[in-house]
Amino acid sequence: MNQAIRNAWIAAIALFALIFGALSYVQVVGADELKANAWNKRAILQTYCNDRGAIIVGGTPVAQSVAATESCKFQRTYTQPQLYAGITGYFSKNYGLTGLELAMNDQLAGSSDQLFLDRVGQLFLGNQPKGASVELTLDPKIQKLAYDLIPEGQRGSIVVTSPKTGAILAMVSKPSYDPNLVATQDADAEQANYNELNKIPGINLNQNVSGPTGALLAPGSVFKLVDTAAALSSGKYNKDSVLPNPAEMPFPGIQYKLPNYAGGNCYTRDTATFAFALQQSCNTPFASIALDLGEKAIADQAEKFGFGQEWGEQLKLDYARSVFPKDLDQAGLAQSAIGQRDVRATPLQINLMTAAIANGGVQMQPNLIKALRSPDLRVLSEPKPQALRTSTTPEISRQITEWMTSVVSDGIAGGAAVRGIQVAGKTGTAELGTGLNNSWFTGFAPANDPQVAVTIVMQGVDITTGAKLTSPNAKKIFEAVLNK
């Protein structure tokens, strides 16, 4: 065999190995990734006209497949679409899948291993396989109440959870949209609707997250709960500690001075207890704690509350990880300690932090799925509450709860007070540099036996509007959940 023939054989074998390797990767290693890709039209077209399982809230489908009169036997439709769009997502022939439609696609399409026996049975009967239904933990009344509490034209999010189980009772944001506009079988209308919806600020149809799970916002003073936990954990502070409370905090070498909150009574004292500093949301005491403990202590505590961390397997939706910045100078650390500078958190992250305090320091996995049912309504799975991480100790959580209760009873979160029930809360105002703010409330009730945690954020509002749309609205949600 001469050299030319030998080289040709080597080249042929190498090409064969390359093709075989590529096919093996696609069929074995990368199969699941390709199948789950929202832009894989072949996977969508295989099941697009099938009888897809329903997504159910409170016994009523909010997404379901109905008999169609067009080219497909079934059409995906959404009821109360804007109320649930951030959770269901959409099922579109040309634009793919988002939300639970994507995350639970195997179950909804009937291709999950959990439905193998059902598929075999349908084949013997000559029927087309049907998908499983997904029951959510959402409470339809609380979901609607929360959605209606965000005024039309106002960007904002509300999250309501059970601190003890992690179950999500309500999760809404505005602006929202109608998934039916993207799920239509009219290709021209589908494209036109998609383009128009993408022009609306706050709506991004390409992402598999919603405002509560995806909007990274400056948390403002609700972050002071992190500072408080870090301080008590350090052993350098206790419930009787006296904190410096100057009207302004200067920094060497720069003209900037960190001011105290001007809307409360912080200016009436040069020193403050933890209770007073939280009640009035004073800035300088918490900045001084951060400078004393150092960046690592604050960052470590933020991480224990979930900043930059995973949220477990039960949420199913994609999410953005909250951020505490690194390599801060003194001014940057002071600003970060009050939830400004480059600190960013999602509304669900702030709710999980709050729920961990309510639950004795243990953060539960956030959970949207109540049950998965086969087409004949058999229960295939029922996720059980699972602890996610330990954020702080029971003793520290009890102490912070006591102070948060005084924020509502004697401080600037008085609008969240509920007659006959102790409410624990914390407000936050994150300045945006435009004269407007992100206005926050986060808290739980009853303080001595927490049943519900509520987090509200209204984006780009003035002080007065923010005060009206946060604590008082939290009160309405507390009353609705606890009076059921």
Which properties best describe this structure?
484 residues, alpha+beta, 5-stranded antiparallel β-sheet, globular
Write the SSE topology.
Layout: H1 3-29, H2 31-36, H3 41-47, E1 55-57, E2 60-67, E3 74-78, H4 81-88, E4 91-92, E5 96-97, H5 99-103, H6 105-109, H7 116-125, E6 133-136, H8 140-148, E7 156-161, E8 168-174, H9 180-183, H10 187-197, H11 211-214, H12 224-234, E9 242-244, E10 248-250, E11 257-259, E12 271-273, H13 274-279, H14 284-293, H15 295-304, H16 330-337, H17 347-358, E13 362-364, E14 369-373, E15 379-381, E16 387-390, H18 394-410, E17 424-431, E18 437-445, E19 452-461, H19 463-469, H20 471-482
Parallel strand pairs: 1-6
Antiparallel strand pairs: 1-2, 2-3, 4-5, 6-14, 7-8, 7-19, 9-12, 10-11, 13-16, 14-15, 17-18, 18-19
Helix pairs in contact: 12-14, 12-15, 14-16
